[in-house]
Amino acid sequence: MSRPPTEPEDPVPPEPQVVQLALCTSDPIATVRRYTEALGFADAGGNLFWGERISVLQDLDEPDAACLVWWLVGRQDFVQLELFQHSRPPQRPQDPGRRPSDHGWTRFGIAVPDFDAALAGMRSSGLEPITEPMLAGGLRRVAFHDPELAVVVELMEEGVALPGGVRPRFYDLAPALVSATLSVADLDRARTFLVETLGLVPVPDVVLHGPQHEALWGLAGARREAFVVRGGDVFLEVVRYDEPAGRAPDPGRRLSDQGIMNVAVGFRERPALDDLYARIVAAGHVVADPLPPPPAGGTYLHDDQGTSWEILGLPREFDAQYGFVPVPGWQVQPRWPQPAVPPAAG
């Protein structure tokens, strides 16, 4: 007796990678200098952008926006820090009363193999840690408030016990972006968006921070719940703070204002980006502008809790144009090679 034909299974969509952390700095020169000299990021160049599309993408109340954009890369493939400073509309400072528990992107974590050198470098750049270093899995961590970025930066000592382990080396550079943290009002809605819509991978066994680590950024005794998802080898930590309760951002806040603008997730393959865009639109999230024509590019969106995101598709041949490749420089050279860390495939 013949068997009935089986229904073909739906193809599993490719996993998106967290590719970019976008930051609005009040002093791009000071920020580039600090993160290259103290932590070992490499200058990846920059550009000037102006015009209506920047206004539309970033939802700015300025029909002809203008900004400086600069990029930094560490050891990871297809991961960058993107620095903005807007002149139209002029960047506004972060609310001085904002707490690390308040809603929105609140901090990010960087791993380095030489913790003592990085700590000394941050101090030499003018920053003192909020507390003394603390241990997590036998590895040290410490946090700083960066006044130009108006955000908490966590410095992590690298080792096999670090959540996610030692990040692969694509470039012969020291630092790796480990995580970014988002404070939200509703964890379930955030999980639905991150996992079902964006396609990020839940990692229920990963705990980036215990309650004791809240003291690192000045929230000793905080009560909170959290979950973690993964995009490539970068984690996104999503937290709901109950004490102190997270507060909504100023309704007049703009993406050009000082602080973390957003996080970008992306793919090397354009069809995967098109599929993600279709899922976002079908789920009813607000997209700033349609995707540009292939092969490269992206767009911005807000999820249903008002968090800003970018989605990006970038074939490798566009890496230098989009700031994912270190550039030779007379002031800053790639350094701190780690021969003990094997190169990543790419």
UniProtKB/TrEMBL annotation:
Example GO biological process: L-methylmalonyl-CoA metabolic process
Domain annotation VOC: ranges: 17-173, 176-314
Classification via InterPro entries: Glyas_Bleomycin-R_OHBP_Dase (IPR029068), MMCE/EMCE_epimerase (IPR051785), VOC_core (IPR037523)
GO molecular function ontology, one term from the record: methylmalonyl-CoA epimerase activity
Keyword set, alphabetical order: Metal-binding
Name of the protein described by the UniProt record: VOC domain-containing protein
Organism: Baekduia soli
Taxonomic classification: Bacteria, Bacillati, Actinomycetota, Thermoleophilia, Solirubrobacterales
